[in-house]
Amino acid sequence: MLDREKFLRPIAHRGLHDAAKGLIENTAPAFEAAIKAGYGIECDLQPAADGTPLVFHDLELDRLTAGTGLITELQPACAAKLPFKDTKLTGILTFAELLTLVAGRVPIFAEIKSEWAPPDLGFLSEIARAGKLYRRPLALMSFDPAVVAAIKRLAPELPRGIVSGSYFDDDGKGWWPDSALTDARRQALASLLESGQADPSFYAYEVGALPTAATQRARRQGIPLLTWTVRTEQDRRIAAQHADAPIFEGFTP
Description:
The chain is of the alpha/beta class. The chain contains nine helices and nine strands.
């Protein structure tokens, strides 16, 4: 289970980032800023070409870095030298480097990215191995219940969570349109109906979709609920009423 005392506090989304100040999301300066302020850290994990877990959100490199192509085609040695745009910062962190940097000072919620294909067990095994060695407040989570179920098998002692939300944009288009997800499955995922095999310790749910029958039921069952991404005063009010901790960005709670 998720230790509420250790984990439930405001959580900085991809670190306490502010590009105008040179604090780029999912980088050491943004994480150090969150630690200094006493916030928990949310981050993202993508596999390098050899399966090494890298701390990066996007599948493609070009939004944040001087690189092109997919992060899944990048070797770790190249990732370590890759410059970020509009800053002197160089190098994408590995998951192991992030854990060394944080060293238990604040809790970490690491989202494992998924493209809705069969889970990459080599990548997940590396995450699980590093997590089990860490022995400090660390929780793993993913939108993909199959990923969370695999983490349960690989590292049953680590808190694990399912990330979810409405699964549809305001115009009715489903998330991940190029994946194998059907609208029926999107609705099932939004209703947390695939939680069984994953046996989550917590959920992280889209703030704009709260409350839902599924999230209210989870809270009644004593399962902690985080909410993402809290950016406005209205989001803050929703989070305070319907969740146990906000994952926030763009302001200080």
